[in-house]
Design a protein that fits this description.
The model has no long low-confidence stretch (mean pLDDT 97). The strands form 2 sheets. This protein has a 9-stranded mixed β-sheet with strand order 5-4-6-7-1-8-11-10-9, sandwiched between helices. The protein is globular. The protein has 2 domains: 2-172, Peroxisomal Thiolase, Chain A, domain 1 (3-Layer(aba) Sandwich); 176-327, Thiolase/Chalcone synthase (Peroxisomal Thiolase, Chain A, domain 1, 3-Layer(aba) Sandwich). Helices cover 30% and strands 22% of the residues. With 328 residues, the chain is α/β, with parallel strands linked by helices. Keywords: Acyltransferase, Transferase.
Length: 328
Amino acid sequence: MIGIKQTAIYEPEHIETAKELEYKTGIPEDVIIEKFGLIEKRVANEDEHASDLAIKAGEKILKHVDPDEVDVLIYFGSPHKDYQVWSSAPRIQHHLKLHQAYAFELMNVSSCFPIALKVARDMMRSDDSIRNILLVGGCKESQIIDYDNPRSRFMFNFADGGAAALIGRNEGHEILQSGIITDGSFSEDVYVPAGGTVHPASEYTLEQKMHYIDVPDPQSMKERLDPVSIPNFIKASQIALEKSNLSIDELDWLLPLHTKKSMFDALINQLQLNENQTIYLKRHGHMSALDPCYGLYYLGQQGVKKGDIVLALSAGTGYTWSATAIKW
């Protein structure tokens, strides 16, 4: 059995409230709370970067684990990191003193935590020498939001944080099977326009504010995405559960990414759950791939019973929908 032995999160100190977001966006506070599903979110300090946030979450786990017993470190967090064309995993490995571990990154924006669980499980099943894998992620995506750009409105919930999960053998919450769906027809709908090879950084890209995340044609994306988004969430969930020899009727808890309230309500309705069977991050916002890991951490404070079935569910622009089932 491959299981999740521990989870940890790091929450930046600064809290940005819905009222403060009203001043930034011009969107009324009650709309941000009721429609966006966001009471407040965390924002990292200027000197806290994605790798720092991941390190601070990982340090909490390593208070209880010998670093030399960790054989692999995988970074699964935001692609908006300290530097471009740079892997944060070696820096995190070094600062956490994981001298016996090799390190690498998985990069699939917001869909990556359920995928990271699958990769860690599959690696350990195929390589008996791996004792423990540490998954770590950081997110500072509040920094890439242009609140004056109405095209990026649905991303105003982007926030910051760090998360970590220790994966090991014969104990913890058992990682079951996964369901993953990609539809690459959405691959050019959401991105930061400048800084890559298409639009290298220049005086022009700075003047045009091209270093913030953008949606070139939000109406086109909405018309194509709305009909498939919820169905693909449900399909990925069904695949994960069916491959685990389970049905939706047997699902007890949902750990979703943070979305607008209407999408969250539609998800739990179709998965035959109620809000009390979920962790909805209305006081944290959306932190790239970290959301379901935050959910796992907070789920430990709920009335979860041994044997309960939990689903980590997320989606990332591109577009990929991912789900991994877990047995408590």
